[in-house]
UniProtKB/TrEMBL annotation:
Domain Quercetin 2,3-dioxygenase C-terminal cupin: 148-233
CDD domains per UniProt: cupin_Yhhw_N
Entry note: cofactor: Binds 1 Fe cation per subunit.
Cofactor list: Fe cation
Name of the protein this chain belongs to: Pirin family protein
The entry's keywords: Iron, Metal-binding
Residues annotated as domain Pirin N-terminal: 13-120
Length: 239
């Protein structure tokens, strides 16, 4: 088993006043050739956007873009006619495919919104753009992982064009989980939102993360009061 560990304060940071963002991987003005991606997991941005502000309409293509609010409201709009407002406990996904124009803005004029912006490189290019969102919080069971994303449209959670599985967990007690990988050759990226965890004898605290690969399963020890996002993704980039 191989691992790579990132402390929260080792991330790139950008402060634009209305936007404050911590970048796990190279993004915009933050460039680190040793932190470009984890397999097909290309972007994890931990964003804070002031009330009444946001990312105006801009283009993307051939990328799976996932947004998960942590506090406040996130308002989506695009040239496909899709609109939506997502909050804590929701997940939003957009396949940019052949090209899409979209905006992601604060849904409140007064309260800040905090959310994760995640990009996954797809296994298919030039797909038809699409948007979807759903609430997963009502299905959460304390001290268990809940699948919130997969490659399958008829499976639990939203779906994307990639052999990726995301799980969310909230732990009210110390809990050990034996995570079994869905696909050989995949890696697992563990991102601790709150609380702490121990993975491969490594202590993870708030906003720390660890990537694990070259194994079929891994023991995850979550501490009381922990909220965590697990992202299983292929390690080989598409040709």
């Amino acid at each position: 088993m191989k691992t790579i560990f990132y402390k929260a304060d080792s991330r790139g940071y950008a402060d634009h006043g209305w936007l404050k963002s911590s970048h796990t991987f190279s993004f915009a003005n933050y460039y680190n050739p040793e932190r470009m991606n984890f397999g097909v997991l290309r972007v994890i941005n931990d964003d804070f956007v002031e009330g009444g502000m946001g990312f105006g309409r801009h283009p993307h293509r051939d990328m799976e873009i996932i947004s998960i609010p942590l506090e406040g409201k996130l308002k989506h709009g695009d040239n496909m006619g899709s609109v939506g407002v997502v909050e804590k406990g929701d997940i939003q996904v957009m396949s940019a495919g052949t090209g899409v124009m979209h905006s992601e803005e604060n849904g409140s004029d007064t309260e800040a919104v905090k959310f994760l912006q995640i990009w996954v490189i797809p296994n298919k290019q030039d797909v038809t753009p699409r948007y979807d969102d759903l609430n997963f919080e009502e299905k959460l069971v304390p001290n268990q992982l809940l699948q919130i994303l997969s490659p399958n449209a008829d499976d639990d959670g939203v779906w994307i064009h990639q052999d990726a599985w995301f799980n969310w967990g909230k732990f009210t007690e110390d809990t050990t989980v034996d995570y079994k990988f869905h696909k050989e050759g995949n890696g697992l990226y563990v991102f601790v939102l709150e609380g702490g965890a121990i993975v491969d004898a490594q202590q993870l605290d708030r906003r720390d993360s660890i990537g694990i690969w070259d194994t079929n399963n891994v023991e995850l020890k979550f501490q009381k009061g922990t909220e965590v996002l697990l992202m299983e993704v292929p390690m080989d980039l598409p040709q």
